Amino acid sequence: MATYYIVENYQQAGPFTLEQLAARGITPETSVWTEGMANWTPASQVSELQYLFAQSPAAPSPSSSSSSYQSSSSYQSQSSGSSRSDEYVPMPKDYKVHAIVLIALSVFCCGVCGGIINLVLGVLALLETNKVESLYRMGNYLQAQECSNKAGKYFKIGMIFFVVGLVLEIIFLIVYYGAVIMGAMSNNW
Fold this sequence. Notes:
By secondary structure, the chain is α+β, with helices and mostly antiparallel strands. The chain has helices at 18-24, 96-105, 111-137, 141-188; strands spanning 4-8, 11-16, 31-33, 41-42.
């Protein structure tokens, strides 16, 4: 059975079972997270939790729920028109160090093509991650999360290129030096 964390009074609380969430009276706008979820999400957008809001005629449907946040002393949900000051949305993951590592690894990548691809992916990841904090501070949480997701995707693709290039380079070196050793041994006989 999945357990969920929620944001309550600007702090993370939980984990809670589905029954405990129902007893706490969470709203469709309550930010929730559970293992396997990439990001904090409004409860109304989590299919397993939608039954909690089915009895309330005022509950917004997931398609009409737009979770945009405004910059102020607290983030406010605009999806239902009411302001909720007890919702804290954490800043998305920052991939700056990852992007810099990817750029540095481009020097060691197998071949010119692989190095250029890693360099480009590292720069793209760095550009996206540089937008995260400023968008978050302006209150554009969803856009900040999108930039964080893009930066993470660029980093993961770059690491795949690096690992594949490194494995191919190791195989090439083994085959090359194996052939050199075999050639040297055949000349001695």
